[in-house]
Amino acid sequence: MLPDYLSKAKPNPAAARAPWYKNTAPSYAGIFLWIAFYNSIAAGTIAKGSLAVCLLALAVAGLLSYALYYLAPAMLGMKTGYPLYVVGSSTFGTRGGYAMPGLLMGLLQVGWLGVGTFFAAKFILTALGMEARPGTAPFIVTGVVWGYVMAWIGVMGIQYVAKVATILNFIPLLMLVVVFAKTAPGMAGHVPTEPDPFAAFTLLVQMVIGFFATAGAAGADFGTSSRDARDVKWGGLVGITLAAVIAGGLPLLSVAGARVLNPRIQGFNYDTVVAAVGGPLASAMFILFTLACIPPACFSSFIAGNSFSTMIPGVSRMGSTMAGMTVAIVLAVTGVAENLIGFFTIVGASFGPICGAMAADYLRSGKKWAGPRSGINWAGYGAWAVGFAIGILPFLPVPPEVQRLAQPAVVYSFAAGFGVYWLLAAAGLEPEVVRMPAD
Predict the structure, then answer these.
(1) pLDDT tens for each residue of 55-74
(2) Model confidence over 213-253: pLDDT tens digits?
(3) What angle do CA 297, 299, 300 make, to 5 degrees?
(4) Could you give the CA distance from residue 95 to residue 273 in angstroms, rounded to a whole number?
(5) Distances from the Cα of 219 to the Cα of 88, 137, 294, angstroms
(6) Distance (Å, rounded) from C-alpha 53 to C-alpha 357?
(7) What is the CATH number of the domain that holds 24?
(8) CA-CA distance, 170 to 181, in Å (whole number)?
(9) Within-domain flag for 362
């Protein structure tokens, strides 16, 4: 017998789908326009590589994010109408799918919601000239209101997430363009102080794909709202590849130019550069950063809601999402979320072998969904274990040269997940397929 999350799954009908520019592209672009992506993108990169090398790395990372992490899950979602947690039951099994990618994705999004809520509350209070300290009454009230409003928008569905993103994406984009224009005169004078083009290139690829990994797997959910393969491809190329280059490239170039124009700037963070620009822009910085937090917060709420409502169908989508947001709010208002970014980045990188295994399963099945496989698919779990061990290598206490050569670990972990799944599946470790009720 199929578990409830499969037996009660209903594919998204064709009538509920829309063009790529109304859902997939703006939603994904909103993720890259979040300050959590680009605030530190120049740190450890422009000191080692030329701006040409760094921009090339961003373009390569955007293409790899699209081709390796997004495309197969999105095509599966489009072809079946089912979200990640249903189509993932082929790669990991009907029982194995509960943990991976099912609840793992939902729990990870709760963590990111906590991080986003923390920074949104901090930015709002700072913009108002108030003390932005976790645990204080203003911080708690701000975090609670922000969190539940974002959760509500996410529960309403992808069309509302996309509408929010379509409007609000222009605000941080405008800010990036204005700062770029102010700092452009200094860009030609940028010279790497610690030349190591290889390290700069691989670190940028790691930063972009490591940030994007879980969102790539969620491409299955966005694929359910795509009408055809054209929507899947254009939504990804514009919302992922192009957005990564623009949202990563403009801040990176701005930091390089600002440091040449103003030698007093010591750091590499983008918000430091914006503050150094001065004038009304600097005063409005935190308000703009807050607005830029809205699309990714809605995105995470939407994906968390999909995860919990699919894996625990007996609980309403609104109820499970609000419960998850309550946990996120607690993490945010207590200040715990401020220290979780590194942890969630590592967990996010664990989706490298998940996406690799799903891509191998997709290709082996003739570019279609094979259907849920009985029990636990050990080919999928074996692929994840090997890929995860490779993916976390740079985060372990290994010699610097090993860390340098281990990047981009998130790409190597994908390749390991893909290769191991293919080998184990060829060896007969895939369980039998179980028919869905609609078959």
Answers:
(1) 999 999 999 999 999 999 99
(2) 888 888 998 899 999 999 999 999 999 999 999 999 999 99
(3) 65
(4) 49
(5) 12, 38, 19
(6) 31
(7) 1.10.4160.10
(8) 16
(9) yes
